[in-house]
Amino acid sequence: MARWDGTDTAGPRWEERAADDDARWFRTLLHLGFFLLLGSSLTRFLMRHTGEGIAPWVVSLAAVLAVLYVAEPAVAGDRVRQSAWLGACSAVWVALVFLAPSFAWCSIPLFYLGLRRLRPPAAACYIGLLTVVSVTAQLRLAGRLEFDILLGPPAVAAICVAVFVRMDRQSARQRELIADLVRTRRELAATERREGTLAERQRLSMEIHDTLAQGLSSQQMLLQAADRTWRTDPDTAHRHVRAATAIAEHNLTEARRFVHDLAPADLASGGGLDKALRTLARRESTDGLAVRCHVEGVPARRLPDRVQSALLRIAQGALANVREHADARTAALTLTYLDDQVVLDVADDGRGFDPAALRDGDGDGMRGHGLPAIRTRTRQLGGTLTVESAPGEGTVLSAAVPLDAAAPAGD
Protein backbone atom coordinates (compact mmCIF):
# COMPACT_ATOMS: atom_id res chain seq x y z
CA MET A 1 0.00 0.00 0.00
CA ALA A 2 1.62 3.35 -1.09
CA ARG A 3 1.23 6.04 1.58
CA TRP A 4 3.16 9.38 2.65
CA ASP A 5 4.73 8.73 5.92
CA GLY A 6 5.15 12.38 6.53
CA THR A 7 8.83 12.42 5.59
CA ASP A 8 8.14 13.83 2.14
CA THR A 9 8.27 17.57 2.75
CA ALA A 10 9.77 18.51 -0.59
CA GLY A 11 7.04 21.11 -1.18
CA PRO A 12 7.47 23.05 2.09
CA ARG A 13 11.24 22.75 1.97
CA TRP A 14 11.25 24.08 -1.58
CA GLU A 15 9.11 27.02 -0.44
CA GLU A 16 11.49 27.66 2.45
CA ARG A 17 14.51 27.54 0.15
CA ALA A 18 12.78 29.95 -2.26
CA ALA A 19 12.06 32.36 0.61
CA ASP A 20 15.67 32.11 1.79
CA ASP A 21 16.92 32.74 -1.76
CA ASP A 22 14.71 35.85 -2.04
CA ALA A 23 16.04 37.19 1.26
CA ARG A 24 19.62 36.45 0.21
CA TRP A 25 19.18 38.29 -3.12
CA PHE A 26 17.60 41.26 -1.33
CA ARG A 27 20.51 41.49 1.12
CA THR A 28 23.00 41.24 -1.75
CA LEU A 29 21.30 44.05 -3.66
CA LEU A 30 21.08 46.13 -0.47
CA HIS A 31 24.80 45.76 0.21
CA LEU A 32 25.67 46.48 -3.42
CA GLY A 33 23.46 49.58 -3.37
CA PHE A 34 25.11 50.84 -0.19
CA PHE A 35 28.63 50.62 -1.61
CA LEU A 36 27.51 52.15 -4.92
CA LEU A 37 25.94 55.10 -3.08
CA LEU A 38 28.97 55.44 -0.80
CA GLY A 39 31.37 55.33 -3.74
CA SER A 40 29.39 57.75 -5.89
CA SER A 41 29.01 60.21 -2.99
CA LEU A 42 32.74 60.08 -2.27
CA THR A 43 33.58 60.51 -5.97
CA ARG A 44 31.27 63.51 -6.26
CA PHE A 45 32.81 65.11 -3.19
CA LEU A 46 36.40 64.58 -4.38
CA MET A 47 35.63 65.95 -7.85
CA ARG A 48 34.29 69.19 -6.36
CA HIS A 49 36.33 69.61 -3.15
CA THR A 50 39.73 68.07 -3.87
CA GLY A 51 41.81 70.88 -2.45
CA GLU A 52 39.75 71.52 0.67
CA GLY A 53 41.10 70.64 4.10
CA ILE A 54 38.12 68.47 5.01
CA ALA A 55 38.83 66.04 2.16
CA PRO A 56 41.08 63.75 4.27
CA TRP A 57 38.39 63.63 6.97
CA VAL A 58 35.70 62.75 4.49
CA VAL A 59 37.82 60.00 2.92
CA SER A 60 38.70 58.60 6.36
CA LEU A 61 35.11 58.63 7.60
CA ALA A 62 33.91 56.99 4.35
CA ALA A 63 36.52 54.25 4.82
CA VAL A 64 35.46 53.76 8.46
CA LEU A 65 31.80 53.53 7.44
CA ALA A 66 32.67 50.92 4.79
CA VAL A 67 34.64 48.85 7.31
CA LEU A 68 31.83 49.05 9.87
CA TYR A 69 29.28 48.02 7.28
CA VAL A 70 31.35 45.00 6.25
CA ALA A 71 31.69 43.98 9.92
CA GLU A 72 27.94 43.33 10.23
CA PRO A 73 28.23 39.49 10.28
CA ALA A 74 30.55 39.72 13.32
CA VAL A 75 27.73 41.11 15.50
CA ALA A 76 24.98 38.78 14.26
CA GLY A 77 22.99 37.04 16.99
CA ASP A 78 23.74 39.52 19.78
CA ARG A 79 21.15 42.27 20.15
CA VAL A 80 23.38 44.54 22.27
CA ARG A 81 26.31 44.30 19.87
CA GLN A 82 23.98 44.87 16.92
CA SER A 83 22.59 48.02 18.51
CA ALA A 84 26.11 49.29 19.23
CA TRP A 85 27.18 48.50 15.66
CA LEU A 86 24.15 50.29 14.19
CA GLY A 87 24.80 53.30 16.44
CA ALA A 88 28.43 53.45 15.30
CA CYS A 89 27.44 53.29 11.61
CA SER A 90 24.84 56.00 12.13
CA ALA A 91 27.26 58.28 14.01
CA VAL A 92 29.88 58.02 11.28
CA TRP A 93 27.23 58.64 8.64
CA VAL A 94 25.93 61.75 10.47
CA ALA A 95 29.47 63.17 10.59
CA LEU A 96 29.89 62.46 6.87
CA VAL A 97 26.60 64.13 5.99
CA PHE A 98 27.46 67.32 7.84
CA LEU A 99 30.85 67.40 6.12
CA ALA A 100 29.51 66.36 2.70
CA PRO A 101 25.70 66.44 2.34
CA SER A 102 25.84 64.24 -0.78
CA PHE A 103 26.38 61.26 1.57
CA ALA A 104 22.73 61.66 2.63
CA TRP A 105 21.81 59.12 -0.08
CA CYS A 106 23.54 56.44 1.98
CA SER A 107 20.69 56.74 4.49
CA ILE A 108 18.47 54.47 2.35
CA PRO A 109 20.42 51.25 3.17
CA LEU A 110 20.64 52.45 6.78
CA PHE A 111 16.83 52.68 6.86
CA TYR A 112 16.60 48.95 6.12
CA LEU A 113 19.28 48.15 8.69
CA GLY A 114 17.29 50.00 11.34
CA LEU A 115 14.04 48.33 10.37
CA ARG A 116 15.68 44.90 10.54
CA ARG A 117 17.57 45.45 13.78
CA LEU A 118 15.22 47.61 15.90
CA ARG A 119 11.75 47.18 17.28
CA PRO A 120 9.00 49.22 15.51
CA PRO A 121 8.93 52.24 17.91
CA ALA A 122 12.72 52.48 18.02
CA ALA A 123 12.95 51.96 14.25
CA ALA A 124 10.48 54.81 13.63
CA CYS A 125 12.54 57.16 15.81
CA TYR A 126 15.74 56.04 14.11
CA ILE A 127 14.38 56.65 10.60
CA GLY A 128 12.96 60.00 11.67
CA LEU A 129 16.37 61.05 13.04
CA LEU A 130 18.15 60.06 9.81
CA THR A 131 15.56 61.92 7.76
CA VAL A 132 15.95 65.11 9.87
CA VAL A 133 19.74 64.91 9.51
CA SER A 134 19.46 64.52 5.72
CA VAL A 135 17.04 67.45 5.36
CA THR A 136 19.12 69.68 7.65
CA ALA A 137 22.37 68.95 5.80
CA GLN A 138 20.77 69.56 2.39
CA LEU A 139 19.18 72.84 3.49
CA ARG A 140 22.47 74.00 4.98
CA LEU A 141 24.19 73.27 1.67
CA ALA A 142 21.50 75.03 -0.37
CA GLY A 143 21.53 78.11 1.89
CA ARG A 144 17.79 78.68 1.47
CA LEU A 145 14.50 76.91 2.01
CA GLU A 146 13.66 74.60 -0.90
CA PHE A 147 10.54 72.47 -0.86
CA ASP A 148 12.11 69.65 -2.85
CA ILE A 149 14.78 69.27 -0.19
CA LEU A 150 12.20 69.63 2.57
CA LEU A 151 9.84 67.00 1.11
CA GLY A 152 12.19 64.69 -0.82
CA PRO A 153 13.99 62.83 2.03
CA PRO A 154 10.74 62.23 4.01
CA ALA A 155 9.10 60.88 0.85
CA VAL A 156 12.05 58.55 0.20
CA ALA A 157 11.97 57.41 3.84
CA ALA A 158 8.21 56.77 3.64
CA ILE A 159 8.63 54.72 0.46
CA CYS A 160 11.44 52.67 1.99
CA VAL A 161 9.42 51.98 5.12
CA ALA A 162 6.35 51.02 3.09
CA VAL A 163 8.35 48.64 0.89
CA PHE A 164 10.04 47.04 3.90
CA VAL A 165 6.78 46.63 5.85
CA ARG A 166 5.11 45.15 2.78
CA MET A 167 7.93 42.67 2.24
CA ASP A 168 8.09 41.80 5.92
CA ARG A 169 4.35 41.08 6.08
CA GLN A 170 4.51 38.99 2.92
CA SER A 171 7.42 37.06 4.38
CA ALA A 172 5.52 36.50 7.64
CA ARG A 173 2.44 35.28 5.75
CA GLN A 174 4.61 33.01 3.64
CA ARG A 175 6.16 31.51 6.76
CA GLU A 176 2.69 30.99 8.24
CA LEU A 177 1.49 29.33 5.03
CA ILE A 178 4.52 27.05 4.98
CA ALA A 179 3.95 26.14 8.64
CA ASP A 180 0.26 25.46 7.90
CA LEU A 181 1.23 23.34 4.90
CA VAL A 182 3.72 21.31 6.93
CA ARG A 183 1.16 20.85 9.72
CA THR A 184 -1.55 19.86 7.23
CA ARG A 185 0.73 17.35 5.56
CA ARG A 186 1.64 15.84 8.90
CA GLU A 187 -2.04 15.58 9.85
CA LEU A 188 -2.80 14.04 6.45
CA ALA A 189 0.03 11.57 6.88
CA ALA A 190 -1.27 10.64 10.34
CA THR A 191 -4.78 10.21 8.92
CA GLU A 192 -3.49 8.05 6.09
CA ARG A 193 -1.54 5.94 8.56
CA ARG A 194 -4.67 5.46 10.67
CA GLU A 195 -6.76 4.59 7.62
CA GLY A 196 -4.05 2.25 6.38
CA THR A 197 -3.92 0.57 9.78
CA LEU A 198 -7.70 0.13 9.83
CA ALA A 199 -7.71 -1.19 6.26
CA GLU A 200 -4.92 -3.63 7.11
CA ARG A 201 -6.79 -4.78 10.20
CA GLN A 202 -9.89 -5.35 8.11
CA ARG A 203 -7.88 -7.25 5.52
CA LEU A 204 -6.31 -9.41 8.20
CA SER A 205 -9.67 -10.12 9.82
CA MET A 206 -11.12 -11.19 6.46
CA GLU A 207 -8.09 -13.34 5.66
CA ILE A 208 -8.23 -15.02 9.07
CA HIS A 209 -11.98 -15.59 8.79
CA ASP A 210 -11.79 -17.03 5.28
CA THR A 211 -8.75 -19.26 5.89
CA LEU A 212 -7.71 -20.14 9.42
CA ALA A 213 -11.08 -19.74 11.13
CA GLN A 214 -12.84 -21.67 8.38
CA GLY A 215 -10.33 -24.52 8.59
CA LEU A 216 -10.52 -24.66 12.39
CA SER A 217 -14.32 -24.77 12.21
CA SER A 218 -14.16 -27.67 9.74
CA GLN A 219 -11.70 -29.52 11.94
CA GLN A 220 -13.91 -29.00 14.98
CA MET A 221 -16.96 -30.40 13.20
CA LEU A 222 -15.04 -33.41 11.84
CA LEU A 223 -13.46 -34.21 15.19
CA GLN A 224 -16.83 -33.91 16.94
CA ALA A 225 -18.32 -36.28 14.38
CA ALA A 226 -15.42 -38.69 14.88
CA ASP A 227 -15.92 -38.57 18.64
CA ARG A 228 -19.60 -39.43 18.26
CA THR A 229 -18.93 -42.42 15.96
CA TRP A 230 -15.67 -43.63 17.52
CA ARG A 231 -17.25 -46.63 19.31
CA THR A 232 -20.08 -47.47 16.91
CA ASP A 233 -18.33 -46.94 13.55
CA PRO A 234 -14.51 -46.77 13.85
CA ASP A 235 -13.97 -46.62 10.07
CA THR A 236 -16.12 -43.52 9.73
CA ALA A 237 -14.38 -41.96 12.74
CA HIS A 238 -10.98 -42.64 11.20
CA ARG A 239 -12.17 -41.06 7.95
CA HIS A 240 -13.25 -37.96 9.82
CA VAL A 241 -9.88 -37.77 11.60
CA ARG A 242 -8.01 -38.13 8.29
CA ALA A 243 -10.13 -35.38 6.78
CA ALA A 244 -9.44 -33.14 9.77
CA THR A 245 -5.72 -33.88 9.42
CA ALA A 246 -5.81 -32.91 5.74
CA ILE A 247 -7.59 -29.65 6.59
CA ALA A 248 -5.02 -28.94 9.31
CA GLU A 249 -2.22 -29.47 6.81
CA HIS A 250 -3.90 -27.12 4.36
CA ASN A 251 -4.46 -24.57 7.12
CA LEU A 252 -0.78 -24.73 8.01
CA THR A 253 0.13 -24.00 4.40
CA GLU A 254 -2.37 -21.13 4.33
CA ALA A 255 -0.96 -19.73 7.57
CA ARG A 256 2.59 -19.73 6.22
CA ARG A 257 1.54 -18.04 3.01
CA PHE A 258 -0.67 -15.67 4.95
CA VAL A 259 2.29 -14.58 7.09
CA HIS A 260 4.32 -13.91 3.94
CA ASP A 261 1.35 -12.21 2.23
CA LEU A 262 1.38 -14.62 -0.71
CA ALA A 263 -1.45 -15.88 -2.88
CA PRO A 264 -3.86 -18.53 -1.50
CA ALA A 265 -2.33 -22.00 -1.45
CA ASP A 266 -4.91 -23.35 -3.92
CA LEU A 267 -3.95 -20.66 -6.44
CA ALA A 268 -0.22 -21.02 -5.82
CA SER A 269 -0.36 -24.65 -6.89
CA GLY A 270 -1.17 -23.58 -10.49
CA GLY A 271 -4.22 -24.10 -12.65
CA GLY A 272 -5.88 -20.78 -11.96
CA LEU A 273 -9.17 -19.94 -10.31
CA ASP A 274 -11.12 -22.79 -11.96
CA LYS A 275 -8.89 -25.47 -10.46
CA ALA A 276 -8.73 -23.67 -7.10
CA LEU A 277 -12.54 -23.61 -6.84
CA ARG A 278 -12.78 -27.31 -7.73
CA THR A 279 -10.16 -28.12 -5.09
CA LEU A 280 -12.09 -26.04 -2.57
CA ALA A 281 -15.33 -27.88 -3.42
CA ARG A 282 -13.70 -31.28 -2.92
CA ARG A 283 -12.15 -30.25 0.36
CA GLU A 284 -15.39 -28.79 1.72
CA SER A 285 -17.45 -31.84 0.78
CA THR A 286 -18.02 -33.86 3.96
CA ASP A 287 -20.50 -36.48 5.02
CA GLY A 288 -23.02 -33.80 5.89
CA LEU A 289 -22.41 -31.39 2.98
CA ALA A 290 -21.81 -32.07 -0.71
CA VAL A 291 -20.23 -29.20 -2.66
CA ARG A 292 -20.18 -29.13 -6.46
CA CYS A 293 -18.31 -26.74 -8.75
CA HIS A 294 -19.29 -25.60 -12.25
CA VAL A 295 -17.40 -23.32 -14.62
CA GLU A 296 -19.25 -21.75 -17.53
CA GLY A 297 -17.74 -19.83 -20.40
CA VAL A 298 -14.15 -19.13 -21.30
CA PRO A 299 -12.25 -16.13 -19.87
CA ALA A 300 -11.50 -13.48 -22.49
CA ARG A 301 -8.20 -12.87 -20.76
CA ARG A 302 -6.38 -14.04 -17.69
CA LEU A 303 -7.84 -12.62 -14.52
CA PRO A 304 -5.44 -10.58 -12.36
CA ASP A 305 -4.02 -12.39 -9.34
CA ARG A 306 -5.78 -10.07 -6.91
CA VAL A 307 -9.14 -10.80 -8.55
CA GLN A 308 -8.59 -14.57 -8.50
CA SER A 309 -7.49 -14.38 -4.87
CA ALA A 310 -10.49 -12.26 -3.87
CA LEU A 311 -13.01 -14.52 -5.65
CA LEU A 312 -11.50 -17.59 -4.03
CA ARG A 313 -11.72 -15.91 -0.61
CA ILE A 314 -15.34 -14.99 -1.35
CA ALA A 315 -16.10 -18.63 -2.14
CA GLN A 316 -14.35 -19.75 1.05
CA GLY A 317 -16.25 -17.23 3.15
CA ALA A 318 -19.58 -18.13 1.57
CA LEU A 319 -19.03 -21.86 2.17
CA ALA A 320 -18.05 -21.12 5.76
CA ASN A 321 -21.40 -19.38 6.22
CA VAL A 322 -23.19 -22.33 4.61
CA ARG A 323 -21.50 -24.82 6.90
CA GLU A 324 -21.93 -22.79 10.10
CA HIS A 325 -25.40 -21.28 9.63
CA ALA A 326 -27.35 -22.83 6.76
CA ASP A 327 -27.66 -26.48 7.88
CA ALA A 328 -27.55 -27.38 4.18
CA ARG A 329 -27.03 -30.76 2.51
CA THR A 330 -25.72 -29.49 -0.84
CA ALA A 331 -24.00 -26.40 -2.10
CA ALA A 332 -22.87 -25.33 -5.57
CA LEU A 333 -20.09 -23.03 -6.74
CA THR A 334 -20.68 -21.59 -10.20
CA LEU A 335 -18.08 -19.44 -11.92
CA THR A 336 -19.39 -17.74 -15.08
CA TYR A 337 -17.24 -15.83 -17.54
CA LEU A 338 -19.24 -13.22 -19.46
CA ASP A 339 -18.08 -10.67 -22.02
CA ASP A 340 -17.83 -7.80 -19.57
CA GLN A 341 -17.75 -9.45 -16.15
CA VAL A 342 -17.04 -12.58 -14.17
CA VAL A 343 -19.72 -13.87 -11.80
CA LEU A 344 -19.31 -16.21 -8.85
CA ASP A 345 -22.51 -17.80 -7.51
CA VAL A 346 -22.67 -19.77 -4.27
CA ALA A 347 -26.02 -21.56 -3.77
CA ASP A 348 -27.18 -23.88 -0.97
CA ASP A 349 -30.37 -25.70 -0.03
CA GLY A 350 -30.21 -24.72 3.62
CA ARG A 351 -32.70 -23.06 5.89
CA GLY A 352 -32.17 -19.59 4.41
CA PHE A 353 -32.92 -16.29 6.10
CA ASP A 354 -34.66 -12.99 5.53
CA PRO A 355 -32.35 -10.60 3.58
CA ALA A 356 -34.40 -7.67 4.91
CA ALA A 357 -32.87 -8.40 8.29
CA LEU A 358 -29.54 -7.20 6.91
CA ARG A 359 -28.73 -3.62 7.78
CA ASP A 360 -27.99 -1.20 5.01
CA GLY A 361 -24.30 -0.76 4.26
CA ASP A 362 -21.72 -3.31 5.18
CA GLY A 363 -24.04 -5.85 6.70
CA ASP A 364 -23.10 -5.17 10.27
CA GLY A 365 -26.33 -6.74 11.40
CA MET A 366 -25.18 -10.21 10.37
CA ARG A 367 -23.50 -12.52 12.82
CA GLY A 368 -19.72 -12.76 12.39
CA HIS A 369 -17.56 -11.39 9.61
CA GLY A 370 -18.71 -13.52 6.68
CA LEU A 371 -21.07 -11.35 4.63
CA PRO A 372 -19.43 -8.02 5.56
CA ALA A 373 -16.06 -9.40 4.44
CA ILE A 374 -17.53 -10.72 1.18
CA ARG A 375 -19.26 -7.41 0.51
CA THR A 376 -16.03 -5.50 1.19
CA ARG A 377 -13.98 -7.71 -1.13
CA THR A 378 -16.53 -7.29 -3.90
CA ARG A 379 -16.59 -3.51 -3.53
CA GLN A 380 -12.80 -3.36 -3.60
CA LEU A 381 -12.96 -4.97 -7.06
CA GLY A 382 -15.59 -2.50 -8.24
CA GLY A 383 -18.23 -5.24 -8.30
CA THR A 384 -21.66 -5.84 -6.81
CA LEU A 385 -22.93 -8.43 -4.33
CA THR A 386 -26.45 -9.85 -4.47
CA VAL A 387 -27.99 -12.10 -1.82
CA GLU A 388 -31.25 -13.93 -2.54
CA SER A 389 -32.79 -15.97 0.23
CA ALA A 390 -35.96 -16.76 2.12
CA PRO A 391 -36.60 -18.78 5.27
CA GLY A 392 -36.66 -22.48 4.34
CA GLU A 393 -35.73 -21.91 0.68
CA GLY A 394 -31.94 -21.79 0.75
CA THR A 395 -29.63 -18.97 -0.27
CA VAL A 396 -27.95 -17.76 -3.47
CA LEU A 397 -25.03 -15.39 -3.14
CA SER A 398 -23.80 -13.76 -6.36
CA ALA A 399 -20.64 -11.65 -6.69
CA ALA A 400 -20.22 -9.92 -10.07
CA VAL A 401 -16.93 -8.25 -10.91
CA PRO A 402 -16.59 -6.12 -14.09
CA LEU A 403 -13.62 -7.18 -16.20
CA ASP A 404 -12.64 -3.58 -17.03
CA ALA A 405 -12.56 -2.59 -13.36
CA ALA A 406 -10.65 -5.75 -12.50
CA ALA A 407 -8.05 -5.32 -15.24
CA PRO A 408 -4.53 -5.30 -13.82
CA ALA A 409 -2.47 -2.19 -14.14
CA GLY A 410 0.54 -3.92 -15.54
CA ASP A 411 -0.85 -7.03 -17.31
TrEMBL record:
Keywords: 4Fe-4S, Cytoplasm, Iron, Iron-sulfur, Kinase, Membrane, Metal-binding, Transferase, Transmembrane, Transmembrane helix, Two-component regulatory system. Residues 311-405 form the Histidine kinase domain. InterPro entries: HATPase_C_sf, HATPase_dom, His_kinase_dom, Sensor_HK_TwoCompSys, Sig_transdc_His_kin-like_C, Sig_transdc_His_kin_sub3_dim/P, Sig_transdc_His_kinase_ChrS. Its EC number is 2.7.13.3. It catalyses: ATP + protein L-histidine = ADP + protein N-phospho-L-histidine. The chain crosses the membrane at residues 29-47, 54-71, 91-115, 122-141, 147-165. PANTHER family: NITRATE/NITRITE SENSOR PROTEIN NARX-RELATED, SENSORY TRANSDUCTION HISTIDINE KINASE. This is Oxygen sensor histidine kinase NreB. It comes from Streptomyces filamentosus.
